[in-house]
Amino acid sequence: MKKLFLLLFFSLFMIRVFTVAAEETLIIELPDITVEAARGNRLQPARPTPAEEKNSAVAQSIIKIEPNSHPVSTAIEEIVRTAGVSVKRYGGLGDFATVSVRGSSLGQINLYLDGIPLSQTSSFFNLGDISAANLEKIEIYRGQSPLRFGKSAIGGVINLVPRQSPGKITTNFKFLTGSFGTSGFNLLCTGGGEKYSLITGVGQLRSRGDFSYLDDNGTPKEDNDDEIKIRKNNELNQLDIFGNASFWGEWGKIKLAHYYFRKHKGIPGIGSYQSESAHFENEFNQTNLIYEKPNLWPDRLGIELKAFYSNKTDAFYDPDGEIGIG
């Protein structure tokens, strides 16, 4: 009986100690925080700053391309500076280049030109063939993509947005020259009026690619047969033409655009056995017709209709059997 009384006493004592400790808990009162927003903007998300648009690692990046960009800069040169995106090049000037978004392969990314799929023309589209001078911005969506593209991909979506006319007459001409017979230019002209705008661009890039290199004659451990040679059959000649006409009114907006690209690229072969005539040629044509009516009814329902023609031809020529395909 005495042990039961002592156990009950200590239990009541511990309860009292915990109660006192709980009563001495420090309480800090924070001031009220009020979040306000205009009712009319409740459906408009906050726009990121230009620095966030270019360097943010969030699900969306927008790369704005200035009109005074490098005359032969391509979409690859602009994309390579974006967080979460890596670029692989398979050669030098004019050679194939692929892009990877968060570790995905090129086949897991949907490519669009002004909302029109480029992936339908070829399983792998070379973004190094698209001139950045004719682009206004590049939209990169990692993973989930907006509904306006119709479908999503594992890696995400890359949308190339063509340059728009400011509605006035302007002319922009850029020229470059470099080593190994490299030269290029880009001409961009714009015009327009109160209810229409026009823009056209022409660009060309050439290079002999005849640099010198050390030929080990297929014997890397033997230095006596090494010699300096000039790279043969490494020329590049590419041309791109772009045109865009827009018309708008109370009935909506119509955009008609055409894109043309052609490239001839020599295939020099390996260092010890250079080819003389093997080369690669590709040609790309795409015509887009887009109708937009954003505020159809009742200022929140819009319509967008798209029709396009696209054709891409890739050809490999090896008349003397110097490269082969096996």
Explain this structure.
The protein is globular, with a radius of gyration of 31 Å. The longest helix has 22 residues, at 2-23. The protein has 3 helices and 16 strands. The protein has helices at 2-23, 50-55, 75-79, and strands spanning 60-64, 85-89, 97-101, 109-113, 116-117, 135-142, 156-162, 170-177, 183-192, 196-207, 212-215, 227-230, 236-249, 252-266, 279-293, 303-317. With 326 residues, it is mainly β.
Q: In total, how many beta strands? A: 16
Order of helices and strands: HHEHEEEEEEEEEEEEEEE
Strand content: 35-45%
Overall pLDDT: 77
Low-confidence stretches: 2-23, 39-58
Helix content: 10-25%
**What is the structural class?**
mainly beta
What spatial form do the alpha-carbon principal axes imply? Answer: globular
Major sheet size, sense and barrel closure: 7 strands, antiparallel
What's the arrangement of secondary structure elements?
Blueprint: H1 2-23, H2 50-55, E1 60-64, H3 75-79, E2 85-89, E3 97-101, E4 109-113, E5 116-117, E6 135-142, E7 156-162, E8 170-177, E9 183-192, E10 196-207, E11 212-215, E12 227-230, E13 236-249, E14 252-266, E15 279-293, E16 303-317
Parallel strand pairs: 4-7
Antiparallel strand pairs: 1-6, 2-3, 4-5, 6-7, 8-9, 9-10, 10-13, 11-12, 13-14, 14-15, 15-16
